[in-house]
Amino acid sequence: MVGVVFSVVTDFFTNHYVFRWRTAMNDFYMSKWEKVRHIEGASQRIQEDTMRFANILETLGVALINSVMTLVVFLPILFTLSQHVEDLPLIGHIPHSLFWLALFWSAFGTSVLALAGIKLPGLQFRNQRVEAAYRKELVYGEDYSDRADPVTVKELYANVRRNYFRMYWHYLYFNAVRYTYNQLDNTFLIFVLVPTFVIGKITLGIWQQISTAFGQVSSSFQYLVASWTTIIELLSIHKRLRAFEAAIDDEPLPEIDQRYLAREDVDGEIAAAKP
Question: pTM for the complete prediction?
């Protein structure tokens, strides 16, 4: 009963804290509305991006706390169990080998996924822009008969389609790396423990203890690996909100905003020149 009450109260106050954080961002940006209103999709960025930014950070924050608490519990256990596995295949003798192995394997996976997904935040950012442009034209079409004509809507949706297909291509190799790492992760510990088990230095019971402790520690160290797709979404939202910060501080817009604004200006000139 104590655990149930504690969980309910914690969730309640966490939700309130996150919403108050979103409210603080919303009130701050609205107080600077005259400076930020010219930025493409300003209304969406204030209404939707502040909400998603706060909610995603809540999710990542809770997962991070859980990972840290798991490490506090299982690291000493894995540290102790490492005495049963003194030699690693292809490497040799390493003190506290399982602890260092869990750290290395998790850092390796995080680095590989970060490299494979380096372009995805920018594509997510671009996706929000083309979706916002398409949605904005449709909204105008509800009130004005000369807006949202089939030709304009078709061009805007073609931009949406083009960006999604490009994003799918980049997610193709990112997912190939991610799923390959996850599959290797399922057999990695077996590869490490089999030589020690075969020569009779550990029993099946100790194997199970090591497997449980190593799995908990490894998954906690792999916090970034498990959360990487969410982090990509968070980075794309951060890129969008950075344009607000730049406008408020009277600084040049971020490079990615300048690049897409320039591209949209060119597209606008081409559309205006059409008969």
Answer: 0.66
